[in-house]
Structure formats: structure tokens, C-alpha cells
Amino acid sequence: MRLKTSHLKEPKHILYFLNSITHKELVSCVGWTTADELYSCSDDHHIMKWNLLTSETTQVVKLPDDIYPIDLHWFPKNIGGKKQSQAESFVLTSSDGKFHLISKIGRVEKSVEAHCGAVLAGRWNYEGTALVTVGEDGQIKIWSKSGMLRSTLAQQGTPVYSVAWGPDSEKVLYTSGKQLIIKPLQPNAKVLQWKAHDGVILKLDWNSVNDLILSAGEDCKYKVWDSYGRLLYSSQPHDYPITSVAWGPDGELFAVGSFHTLRLCDKTGWSYALEKPNTGSIFNIAWSTDGTQIAGACGNGHVIFAHVVEQRWEWKNFEITLTKRRTMEVRNVINDAVDLLEFRDRVIKASLNYGHLVVSTSLQCYVFSTKNWNTPLIFDLKEGTVSLILQAERHFLLIDGGGIYLYSYEGRLISSPKFSGMRTDVLNAQTVSLSNDILAIKDKADEKVIYLFEALSGKPLGDGKPLTHKTEITEIALDQKGLTNERKIVFIDKNRDLYITSVKRFGKEQKIIKIGTMAHTLAWNDTSNILCGLQDTRFTVWYYPNTVYVDKDLLPKTLYEKDASEFSKNPQIVRFVGNQATIRRADGSLIHLNISPYPAILHEYVSSSKWEDAVRLCRFVKDQTMWACLAAMAVANKDMTTAEIAYASIGDIDKVQYINSIKELPSKESRMAHILLFSGNIQDAEMLLLQAGLIYQAIQVNINLYNWDRALELAVKHKTHVDTVLGYRQKFLEDFGKKETSKRFLQYAEGLDVDWDKIKAKIEMEIAKERERAAATPAVRASVTVQR
């Protein structure tokens, strides 16, 4: 990926003197109205409009000679859920201590005395309901939409050079010398402050999508921080101070400007491209609304434009490169065949996965099959600025400023999920996940909540209740294979703990189980439900994450771990296709890790119920990890014969004995219940026994688990075996030399003598009744295999 830069031979911002001598005046700020129209302001007092489609430059207005512009920010387009096609007004800060509200046609609607000394920066919040300004007087002020002062948020002893709103518009980030400060709008809320640079901080930016902070200073470095003030990346010192930084709209890229320097960087900090244009210092950088191009305000009077080109997408044997704004090159690395894809409009976003290339331009969406590049399916977009494309095997997702749209690969609109307070402008690949049947979206308003939707209907899943965690969630991912009722979602929370849970939401609260710690990136495999992630200094593969719901003790035996210290600090998993995981290091280089192909083959055999083939495969590989995976898979699928073989192979003799005891149980309901008990599903096991009328067996299960209160509750409710419960309870207390203290047990024990002969006779009678019932049932093969 690189930048293709351009600027006019002669600058448009020139100051003319009476004797016809011209002087190039620095351009102080720039701002885009649409993806093809830019406004620029300069010390020559002119506001210029640049049309990139016609290459025309026109003067919008000449400001009074005492107004020297410093910063410009367009009023946001998304207001109250309505999206305008383009911005209609902007705020302009100036050196005379005022800010000016100016319409698109150049009319100054209002000028407001704001600060003593220059107003160094001004920013609208994301809703357009408030404006923040900072100045040389060290004050940070909040204003209403109409320019009325609401509050003075803070007072510093030094000039405040830059300011940004937090993603939720509830906090403000600003500079104070070498310090960065995050101050909430609430009066008594905690203020976060830290030393960020060794020199004065000149510029900062806070992205609403990835929640990361950029800072740049006179120490000639730019840095990336998270919203808690933790350093994620620090650049090497440049030759000159960094005078501008700006995030791309989707939070995947950012641009850095300095003297004769323009740099394009990944969100993790490493540099894609470095350009050395003859521009002087670049004082201000603005990204176009579609994220395809950059404009820079230059010290020598120029406005520099840079287009992002040569993005690359890879999938299996295909490599696709955006060679020009409207041209892609497809290369098949197996036979070196090359295809050129031409588009009518410039390419904004693209995604390559599951045998399809999906490309969005400014007006249309193209869907190519990797089997035929010549005949794409084309349909018009409701709104051109697509911010995210996600693919699953059967369909794909488009997100733009207007909503979320799910399309089939034939171009048919499947659904358009919605929830209250939805903000599509802050969604990215870490907060949205798509599978063949489920769509998961992390809420931005409450970051502990994940909304789940049926992909085909767009309706909330199950009972409509979202999945809720105890702390804020940072990244989510749905598994891609298997049945809908077995679908799992994994997520990382702000403590970097990794959790897994089922997406089934029918009244009963699903267990959320922790399976990893210090995790910061993860990915599901595209062909089987194998998960990989980076935990601190280890690369970990969970060959069968569902093990935690079957047999927790087995989970460590189903993992593959590798030392990840060679990947340097903060590596990211790019993709996990087939048996290869691709990881990007902090310096931008890619590392390909191959994992064993056998677990994926085992998944395939189990999904097809080829248990004998699965056993043969494990015997061939002779790996304890494979046997552990097979044991968990067999129990999950209720195939106890295979489970017995697998547990025996890994030496879990106690579990083999328990499986044998299950096989000796007389009725299939009892066997099913004990298989559920084996997996720790006590409530389900009890419910199954009660539904089958096996009251004594349900009571005995609770006695065996020492759930005394529940055992007594069942006995009293069904008016049977109260003496049995009291007898076992009495024996339990005698063994430990303790006396009964429970009022409930004392109440029922009054006047009741425990007769063990009578209890044993009743138990034998219950077992005989169960055997007779099982014998009377037609000898059909149960859904559970419990015999050799």
C-alpha cells in the first residue's frame, strides 16, 4: 500500500501586493465536504473550494484582513439519525480570539469572542450538539450548536494546541505541554492524565471506531495510545517536529505530516509508505469521507492530495492488488494467470474470502466469483460510502452510514438488522461478526452488550435478549461451521480475558466460560471450528473450544501452544485459512504459521458421524491432543463407545469406569441423564429424569452430588423417599462427626426412625421398576450409542 501524491505547479493561496509582487502564504487547514470536494483556508484570508472531479478551484469567500484562519471543522452529516449528502456549514477558528460559523457558500453566520489570544482548535462532537474550542489562554470551552457558551471545562497554564472528542462525545482529549489529558464532561468524574512526549505536543486525534489515540510533538515522534493511556506504538525520531496527524474514517489507517514528509501508517503504528513532497511543513491533514484520499495543508501555499493505492487482498492462491483508483489486478499464484478488473467509479472497500471478491465503489457493489472474473454481479448501493465488508460462506455484509445490509452472493438483499441507538459509523471488524446464520454486533453505547440477530430475517435471535458480560468487551468473533443451535461466540474483554459462550438465547442464561488470559487478538478457522489467538507471549490454538462445555479438565490437553516472543510487541492475527495462520508483526512484516492438518480432518469425520474413521485417524497420528479432542467430541455427540476408547488412550481411567457404569444403567433416560452429568449439566440431567418419571433416580443424583436441599425438596414435593434422603444425610454427617443444623432437615427428621433395610428394599424396587419399564420399551437404537 502506498500514497500517490499530487499538487498544482503553482499554489492557489497567494498574497498579491500593490506592486504585483506575489507571496506564497501558508495553508493552515483543510476539510472535505464530500469525497470529491475540499475547502482550504490560508493566511491570504481566502477560503478556496477544490473540485477533484473537474479539477476546478474557486474562491468561496475572502475573509477580513484581521482574520488569520487556524483550524476548520465541518459540521457532522449524521444528525438525529438523518444523513445529509454533504456538510452544510463549518467552524473556523482564527488568531483574533474568535471562532466563526460559516455556511457552505461562504456566508459568516456568526462570529464569537472565545479566547484571549488565538483559538488554536475547534471540534464538533459526533452528534453536532456541542463544539469544543481551545486557545493560547489555556482554556478548554464547550459551546452550543448556535455558539452559546455552556461551560469552561478546564484552565491550563500553557497553550492548548489540539483537542478531540471521545467516541461517545462524553469526554474531551486535549494537550497540555508534554501531557495528554482526558477530561469527562461530568464535573466529578475522574480525569486521566499522562506524560506522552518529551517535547510539546502539537497535534492529536481520537478515533471513534477503534478508540485509539494519536499524538505528535516537537520531540519529532508520533505515538499510538489506547483510551486508558497505555502506549501501543512509538515511532523513531524524525528529522523535524511532527506537525499533523489524522485517523482514517474506519480507523484502519492514519496519516502523519511533517516538513517535506507525508507518511501512511497502519493503526498499529508501522509505516506503509513514506512520501517526500516539496511542501514545507504539513500543518493539517484531512481524510476524505470514503477514506480513499488525503489532503494536506502545506507551509508553502500548496494543498497536497494523496490517493491510497496498491492495497492488497489475499485468499488461498489468489492475490489482488488495487493498481489504480479504478483498476484491480488479480493474480493466480499457481499458474501466474493475471486478470484486470476495471470499474466505472473509484474503489472504496473490498473483501476477498470464501471464493468471492466483493468490491464497493462510490455508487455500486461488484461481486466476483474466483471461478470466473469476467462476469461480476453488479447492483447499486443506497449510499456510496461503505465502511465495512464482512463475508461468510453463504452471504456478505455491507455497512454504510445509513445501516447494515446483508446480501447473498447473487446480489439479493436478505435482511437489514437494526437495534435502538445503533451507530454504524463506529462499527468495525472487531465489533461485528458474521456467520452463515447469525450476526453479532457489539453495542457502542453499552460495551458490555452484544446484540445477536438471525441472518436470514434480521430479527433478534431467540428471546430477543442480548448477550451481556460483566465488563466491557473489545473484540468478538463467531465460529463459522456447524449447526445453528451449536453456534459459539468468543470475545475478549478490557481485562484481556478470552471467553466463550453459546449464542442460543431461549430464556435460560448461557454459561460464559473463560478459556484464556492476556489475549489481544483471535481468529476462527474458515473450514472448521478451530480457534487461534495470541495470549501474552504465546500463540495458542484451541483445536476444540467446545471442550469447556463437555469436560473442562480436558481443555488443556486439546491446545497447541507455541512461543510468540519472536513476533515482537503487539502482533495481530490477519487470517486463519485452512491449516495456516497469518500474523502481522509490529513492524508490518507477515509471518505464516502452519498448524497440524489432522484436527481439521478429525472435525470433518465427526461432523459426518464417521466415528470409526476418527478413531483410525487418532491411532495413525498417535498424538495425545488428538485423542483428547476426540474424547470431547464423542461425549458432546453422545457417542460413549468412542469416548471410552479415547479416554482410555489418554489414561483417564476414572472416566472410562464411569462410562462403563453408564452402559450398565437399565433405561435410556438414565443413560442420557448420566451423560449430561458427565458434562456437568446437572439441571438438564435432573429435568430429563423427572420428565421420564424417574423420581428416585433424580433424588439419588442430587444425593450423590451432596445437593441435600434439592434432594429433600424433590422428595417432599413428590411425597416419596423422604426417609432415603434423611438416611443418607444422617450417614454423611456421622462420617464427618457433625450434627444436623439445618432447620428443614430437623423438622422432617422429627419422629422418623431411619430403617436402612426398608430404604434398601425401596431402592431395589425402584431399580426393578426401571428395568421392567426398559424391557417393555421397543428395542430400537437410542439416539445415544451406549453399547459396543
UniProtKB/TrEMBL annotation:
Gene designation: IFT80
Name of the molecule in the record: Intraflagellar transport protein 80 homolog
Keyword annotations from UniProtKB, A to Z: Cell projection, Cilium, Cytoplasm, Cytoskeleton, Repeat, WD repeat
GO cellular component terms listed in the entry, alphabetical order: axoneme; centrosome; intraciliary transport particle B
Reported function: Component of the intraflagellar transport (IFT) complex B, which is essential for the development and maintenance of motile and sensory cilia.
Domain IFT80/172/WDR35 TPR: 626-772
WD repeat locations: 112-144, 194-226
Domain of life: Eukaryota
Domain IFT80 second beta-propeller, residue spans: 310-598
Classification via SUPFAM superfamilies: WD40 repeat-like
Entry's Gene Ontology BP terms: cilium assembly
Subunit structure, interactors included: Component of the IFT complex B, at least composed of IFT20, IFT22, IFT25, IFT27, IFT46, IFT52, TRAF3IP1/IFT54, IFT57, IFT74, IFT80, IFT81, and IFT88. Interacts with IFT88. Interacts with IFT57 and IFT70B.
